[in-house]
Amino acid sequence: SPSNKFSVTEKVDENNVSLITSGAVYSALQDYIKESDIGSNNTVSGATSFAAGASNKIYAAKSMAIGQGNTINIDANNYGTNLVAGLNNIVAKPNDDGSTGTGGYSVTFGGTCTNNGVYSLTNGMKCEVYANQSIVSGRENQVLANSHYSLNTGYGNITNGHQATIVAGRGLTSGRNYQGVFGQFNEVDADALMVVGKGANASARSNAF
């Protein structure tokens, strides 16, 4: 029969994994695995990294970008190992002074998010995390530097350098380590372990307790 005819056979390797070993299917799989990107205008220079979509850029190793306009930079510790899906997200964003940003082992979903944390998760729109082992979700929330081990969710919240905090609501700001902040537009309290905001807006902040 012709050499390019589909003639699929299987064998089992020493780990009992079934492998396709002959015909055009096997050849196509080999070629596919060698590809570093699918789509258009992607740039992939990180070892064993992969991009799917358009205008994604991957410079870090062992990373994957899916969508459009996402960037995964080499981080300061060269950890790599990132997953990004969505639109115009960035991992290991360079610092303001132009030096290499931190990051690595991170997951980022959504649009226009920044993930400069190690083992951190970002999910939403215009969210930013600069701390390690933290989670930020929602819209326009920020987990700032040194706010490690924190959770921030809602809209327009800031975890302001405080560790192991939970911030959930609208327009909230943390005031100390190990604090829970809930509600909306709280007045920052540097002593309380839990704060519930009841402010009307960013210019009229107050707490229920």
Explain the overall architecture.
With 209 residues, the chain is mainly beta. It is 6% helix and 36% strand. The strands form three sheets. The protein has an eleven-stranded parallel sheet with strand order 3-5-7-9-11-13-15-17-19-20-21, with no helix packed on it. Strands 4-6-8-10-12-14-16-18 form an eight-stranded parallel sheet, with no helix packed on it. The longest helix has 12 residues, at 23-34. It starts with 9 loop residues before the first strand and ends in an 11-residue tail after the last strand. The relative contact order is 0.07. The model is unreliable at 1-13 and 16-21 (pLDDT under 50).
Number of strands: 21
Distance between the termini: 81 Å
Shape: elongated
Which strands sit side by side, in order, in the main sheet? Answer: 3-5-7-9-11-13-15-17-19-20-21
User: Pairing-aware structural class of the strands and helices?
Assistant: mainly beta
Radius of gyration from CA coordinates: 22 Å
Unreliable spans: 1-13, 16-21
SSE order in H/E notation? EEHEEEEEEEEEEEEEEEEEEE
Features:
mainly beta; elongated; disordered N terminus; single chain; 209 residues; 11-stranded parallel beta sheet; 8-stranded parallel beta sheet; 6% helix
Short description:
By secondary structure, this protein is mostly beta strands.
What secondary-structure arrangement, pairings included, does this model have?
Blueprint: E1 10-12, E2 18-20, H1 23-34, E3 37-40, E4 43-44, E5 50-54, E6 57-58, E7 64-68, E8 71-72, E9 83-87, E10 90-91, E11 107-111, E12 114-115, E13 121-125, E14 128-129, E15 135-139, E16 142-143, E17 151-155, E18 158-159, E19 166-170, E20 180-184, E21 194-198
Parallel strand pairs: 3-5, 4-6, 5-7, 6-8, 7-9, 8-10, 9-11, 10-12, 11-13, 12-14, 13-15, 14-16, 15-17, 16-18, 17-19, 19-20, 20-21
Antiparallel strand pairs: 1-2
